[in-house]
Each structure stands twice: as C-alpha cells, then as structure tokens.
Amino acid sequence: MSNSTPFVSDGPVAQSKVTQTGGQAIVQGLIAKGVKRGFCVPGESYSGILHALDQVKDEFDLVVCRHEGGASYMAQAYGRMTGKPGLCMVTRGPGACNALIGVSTAAQESTPMILIIGHVTTSTAGRFPFQEIDPQAVYGSVAKWVGVVERAEDIPHMIGRAMSISISGRPGPVVLAVPDNVQFSEIRKSRILPTRRPEMAPAIASMNKIAVLLSESKKPLVLLGGVGWDQAACDDLAAFAAAWDLPVSTTFRRNDLIDFSHPCYIGSFNPGPHPELVTRARDCDLLLLIGGRLSELETGRYEHLCAPDEARTVIHAAALSDEFGETLQPDLAVVSDVAPFSAALSELPVATGLAFAGQREVLRSSFLAYNRPVDFGDRMNPGNGVEALQHVLPENTIICAGAGNYTHFVLRHHKFKAQGTLLAPLSAPMGYSVPAAIAAAMENPQQEVVAYVGDGCFLMNPQELVVAVKRNLKLTVVMFNNGIYGSIKMHQEMAVSGMNVAVMLDNPDFQAMTQSMGLKTRQLTQAEAIASAYQALRKETQGPIFIELITDPDVINPQFTLAQIRENKRK
Known about the structure:
The chain has about 575 residues and is α/β, with parallel strands linked by helices. The termini are far apart.
C-alpha cells in the first residue's frame, strides 16, 4: 500500500483520505521502513495496531505465537538473519515482562529489534491502572532506547527514531510503548522515508599500517566475531587469510564466519576450545580482531589477551569506538564495518618472506585431530550423531542452538560451511532454539533448518511448534535427552563431587507430545542413526519433524565424562 492510499476502516474512528489512526500510522511507518513481518501474542492493549494490521494483511505477515518469550526470540532471530529490525508486539504488564528475554538476547547479540508494547491509557498512567509497568525502568538496562508515545502526532517521528537507533552504531533493541487510546486517535498522514545505516569504511593509512604490522609479525592470530557479516565479507576475509597464510579463529558461537574446510581455520573459542588455539592466543605477537568483542570465554576468564603486553600488538576493527578498550586496549583501532574492512584486507599486497609461513598448517592439523569425536568406550558420544547428520544435511542448513551442554557437541562437531547458518546467541539463553528455527524457516523456506535442543532447553518453548506445523515449515528438531540439566550438573560436579541439586528432570513423553502437535517423529538410542532417521522422515514430509536421541547423562561434554571429572578431583 502506498503512502498516498487511504486506509479503509470500520473501526471506532471514521477515516478520511488525509487522516489515519495512531495504530495505522505505526503500521504504515513500519511497512515504509521495510518491516513486513512481525511476531506477536495479541492483547487488548494494542487493539488499534492489530486492527490496522488486519487492513494490510496482504502486505504484512503477522505471526501469532503462544508465548511472548517465543515471539521475542523469533523477532531477535529475524533481526540476526536479515540485519533489519525484528518486530515483536506484546500487550502491557505480563506480556511485556515475558518479552524481556528476547530484548535481553538482542542486546547481548547486537541485533536490531523493535518491541512494541500496548501501554495503559494516558489518563490512567501512574494511578495503579490494570497491568501497568514502567517500560523505561523495566527495559532501561537492556534496550538502546525506550520510548513512550504520549501523542499520536509523534508516532511518525518515533517510528523513524526507533528504526534509526536500532540499526545504528552497534545494532540493538529498542522498545516503544503505545497507550491504547493513542492508537485510535486520528492524525494527519505524513510522508515516511526509508531508514538506512551509513557504511563506515577504514582509512587508507590504517590499512597500510596493518600491512606493515603483518609483514613484521612472527606469530599472528586473526579472530573473527561480531555482527554485520555477509557471505561476500566472509569470502574477502577468507581470501586475505589464504593469501597471507594466516591462522584464523572465531569468537564464541561465531563458527559460521569461515568455512570449516578452509585451510586457515584453526577452531573457535567455544567451551572446550582446541588447546593449541588457546596457546596461540597466549603467545601471539599480533592479534587482528575483526568485528568481535572479547568476553571471559575467549580470554579464559580474562587470564590471557587482556593484560597489556609489550610483545603483542593488537589491531581491533569495530563499528563502534566504545568497544575499543572494553576488554583489551588496541594499539591500532579501526572504526569500520566488517564488510568494507574485509574487502580492504583482501586487496592488501602480500609481503614476501613472512616469518610465520607454515605455522598455520601445523595449527590446522592439530585442530582437525582434536575435532574428531572422542571415543568413550561403551558410552555413546552424541558428537557422532552431530557429525553423521551433518554429512547428509544440505551445506546451507541453518543450525539453531539455545543453552545447555548439548550445544557443546553441536558447536564442536558440526562443520559450518557458509555465513548465516548459525543462530546461537552469545548470552546462551534456554528455550531459544525452537523459536529461532521457526523464524529461520519462514525467512528461508527453501533451506533446511535444524533446531538442536536438550530436554531441558526444549521444554522452555515447545508450544511454538504449532506455528511450524500450521505453516508446514521445513524444520527438524533434534533433541538430546539425558534427563538432567546437564550444564548445571557438570558445574556442580566441578565444584563438589557428587553434588546433585535441582538437576534431575521429570520429563513427559516427548514422542506423544510432538505427535499431538502434528510432527513426524522418531526416538533413537544410537547416535549415528540420526542421519538415516532424518532422511526417512524427510521423505515422509516436507514439514516439521522431531528426532529424540536418548543420551547417557555421564557423557556430559565432548571431551570428558562426569566420572572423569570426579576422578580428576580425587587426584
């Protein structure tokens, strides 16, 4: 619908060719800004917006969810995949509180997102009205900006501001609370322009300096992370690394920024990283950090890469200057988006006589040996299942993961081939995987999407699978069912041998549960059988399928068992 076309309404406010309701202004503004899909749980506090959405249902895909946490996760995943703000709409009070998890995830992940909350009537605010919360107090610590619309006339400006703040600098979530009466107020139409993020490119002098520093280095390490990547940027970076024979790693849960098979890739700083990668991080004399932020995971709880070291030069390229010095102080700080920076790197003339020539090959060989699934004797290693399934999945399959030790097997043994094929937030929230996979399957209907879950993680948001069934999405859920909160159990054992507090799960019959929702299912006891089960189920249906693998709770980690933890503590 063009901006000049009047909305036709049978709602409580009569419409003319030059006016619209506040709700219509919000919807028209979102569509004009390129937002064509939103995730919601309906509520009476934003009936004006829902009414306006009904009038443009041929232009806008409204995804109705069963829980605001699931809806907000879907919106976050959409923003992560597209680079455009993911839209979530919820009602006031309880709905707004439930949606907080997705906003927090978007903040940690630097994902553009807009949460619209139906708010209490303007005349009742502050007088203990039904379901009132203070949006600015509740969301102030996790959102980039929280706005409360006091007048319908301000809506076009506030929609534009919300979009701009969400995608600028380090992207992130914004929250807009819209009182219910404002949504039905009548205002004049106004022209709305698209919002674009200006691209930041590196200075020529910075690139020349990088070339000199690389040519003088004896033990370099390239570390990729952050957001803003596309496949072209990843290809440019891969070409640069190959030309210079540089070892390349990725930050936590950013495995898809370089093809696993690339000869320069030496592993990721996920839990249980390749030991030689950690050694390289400790000993490198040049660290080139592109796009990412270093946390306790990459730095071994701040034991390495953090303290000033005269023997190490740090180059950090990031889109926002306040990231410099957050964990480590760079010697050369480059304010740039990752795409133009990677393109500039790929054009650097390669120096001759590099002192580090051949080191990459040794590191790569050691990483490949470490990456093979560990043989736990008569105990099943779920990593064999991940590896087997990866061999039969299309290369562009999107992998989703939430929280729990099951993710360690996925991140270690799935061989990512292309950018944009991993949805696994840095904050590692439970319940993320299924909603994220649903959003991914809607956005990429021709691709296979796999949601890996643990039995604990799955039960946080299984209700959203009804959306996948209704839309017949090409989605596979793979559950590792060990009957415990595995990550918590592992940490308890590390603290006190035999500790077993609040970790045992009383699970339902997952086969009956998912079948009742309409999914095709299998239950397995052998890890390698996942591949054939997937192939058989996918022949039966192009819709959602569910594979449950019963796993051994003792095999708690890709590298060691609970029994081994206890044994090591006794030594």
